[in-house]
Write a structure and sequence with these properties.
Blueprint: E1 5-11, E2 14-21, E3 24-29, H1 35-45, H2 56-69, H3 88-97, E4 106-107, H4 108-114, H5 121-129, E5 142-143, H6 158-167, H7 185-195, H8 197-206, H9 219-229, H10 234-246, H11 257-262, H12 265-270, H13 275-289, H14 296-299, H15 304-311, H16 319-328, H17 341-351, H18 359-366, H19 373-385
Parallel strand pairs: 4-5
Antiparallel strand pairs: 1-2, 2-3
Helix pairs in contact: 4-5, 7-8, 8-19, 9-13, 15-16, 17-19
């Protein structure tokens, strides 16, 4: 290594930071909301360092990190880390974590066992929570018992962890859903309450956030159900959806694209589908079969607007439908459905306005609610329900 320093660099998950010294990489910092915050966090730990051009050996490490976060399998084990100030137990935890290949995961308990210290899963979690070498020591690949996501101390919390796992296509079962949101709703409530006094009063009246994730085995299954349910009351839609499912009595699991494509128009229309919904389901199935619709694992690596852009290409799927999928199927934290009547009506109730807010008014106020606009929307819906 040459003279110590630090630098910021762009990746698929945002602008990361890296600090180095004579004995190797001293820190890899995941993105904060703004580059100035990423820089400030590095300087908090290393106030003596100057921002500078990375030397060749550091640039090679940066290039490999960028490549990994682009979704390509890259081995980072050769990157030299300066662990002089890392406690011995933490060092051993990090060494085991570095052996987890991209696309795989271990649990805290499994790492504890590999260390010869079964029963020390909590200590393993604490060590990983203090990991200064994000990505290079891949703590995002370490899960809680039973495949649960567990905590993540980086900016964005478990949402960042899910995004990184999605990029690496790690453990697809995670993305089939276990009812766990990709963020901490309690933290979201605290942040929203601090950011907006009027919204805080609504939160205090409604109580804890109970936004729940509805699991799905595939994007096709989630969108197919949404298409059937469009513009129908719940009971009628459930009846039609059950009739569609009944067309495939030997099939197990969720409705699939192959099943829809194997059924005739007469059969699907006979189950109660309108012509528009029949055509929409067929288009969705064809896009799924030809690979133009992203899979559930692939979609985790995409940002919200890209997902909206990709999925609204499907016939009969609009922005609102995708926003509902983002919130209630994918557990995304920062979705604001501006066209939703319930959200706008809830705003009018909570904020005491005579008229429903315009999209511009709602969007302007909602800047205070980032990055937890999904939770704010949930509370606005509850305000409407309370009428």
């Amino acid at each position: 290594m040459t003279a110590p320093g630090f630098a910021l660099f762009e990746t698929a998950v945002g602008q990361c930071g890296i600090a180095w010294g004579a004995r190797g990489i001293r820190c890899v910092q995941l993105p904060s909301a703004r580059s100035s915050e990423t820089r400030a966090r590095l300087l908090t730990h290393f106030p003596e360092l100057q921002e500078s051009v990375p030397p060749a050996v550091v640039q090679r490490a940066i290039d490999r990190i960028v490549t990994l976060l682009r979704g390509e399998a890259v081995d980072l084990s050769a990157i030299e880390l300066d662990m002089a100030d890392v406690p011995p137990f933490h060092r051993r935890v990090y060494e085991v974590a570095r052996t987890i290949p991209s696309g795989d995961t271990l649990s805290y308990g499994q790492i504890a066992t590999r260390l010869g210290k079964p029963g020390s899963a909590r200590a393993v979690g604490q060590a990983l929570g203090r990991n200064p070498f994000a990505i290079v020591v891949p703590c995002h690949r370490v899960l809680a018992a039973g495949g649960k996501i567990g905590g993540f101390s980086a900016e964005g919390g478990t949402m960042t962890k899910l995004k990184m796992l999605g990029i690496e296509r790690a453990q697809p079962s995670l993305f089939e859903g276990d009812g766990v949101l990709g963020f901490d709703p309690a933290l979201a409530v605290r942040e929203l309450s601090a950011a907006d006094a009027k919204l805080r009063r609504l939160i205090e009246r409604i109580g804890p956030c109970r936004l729940a994730l509805k699991t799905t085995p595939s994007i096709f299954a989630a969108l197919a159900e949404s298409i059937v349910y469009q513009q129908l009351n719940g009971k009628a839609a459930a009846t039609i959806f059950a009739r569609v499912r009944a067309l495939f009595p030997r099939a197990r699991g969720a409705l699939s694209a192959t099943q829809i494509l194997s059924a005739s128009e007469t059969e699907l229309r006979g189950a109660g589908l309108s012509n528009a919904k029949y055509l929409a389901l067929r288009d969705l199935a064809k896009r799924t079969e030809n690979g133009s619709l992203p899979s559930l694992a692939q979609i985790q690596a995409l940002d919200d607007e890209t997902i909206i852009e990709r999925l609204t290409e499907v016939r009969g799927v609009g922005r609102w439908t995708v926003e509902m999928l983002l919130m209630f199927r994918l557990g995304r934290a920062d979705v604001l459905p501006l066209d939703d009547y319930g959200v706008r009506k809830g705003y009018s109730i909570a904020f005491g306005t005579k008229e429903l807010p315009t999209k511009a008014e709602l969007e302007t106020r909602a800047k205070r609610w980032k990055p937890y606009r999904s939770v704010a929307s949930w509370y606005l819906w509850r305000a409407t329900d309370s009428l």
